[in-house]
Design a protein that fits this description.
The protein has about 80 residues and is an all-alpha fold. The protein has one domain. The termini are far apart.
Length: about 80
């Protein structure tokens, strides 16, 4: 069992849900930008976490692409 990795995952979930809840209070373009940034950051962290596991790297790239689309095009 890798406790620091589990603790980082738990803190990441708390931060992600907190940012998602706070972004609902922002005005129209900024809430999508914040949510898109969170998805993109999740994708980058998944890609770096993968360490050679191809399906996790692909998932990370999909999350980054969705985050960019959400931030700039899907309002």
């Amino acid at each position: 069992m890798n406790l620091p990795r589990q603790a980082m995952s738990m803190f990441g979930l708390i931060i992600g849900f907190g940012l998602y809840a706070l972004s609902g209070r922002l005005q129209a373009p900024w809430n999508s930008v914040i949510i898109g940034t969170v998805f993109a950051a999740l994708g980058v962290s998944a890609f770096l976490y993968a360490k050679g596991e191809r399906w996790i790297q692909v998932l990370g790239l999909i999350l980054v692409a969705y985050g960019v689309l959400r931030a700039f095009f899907l309002h």
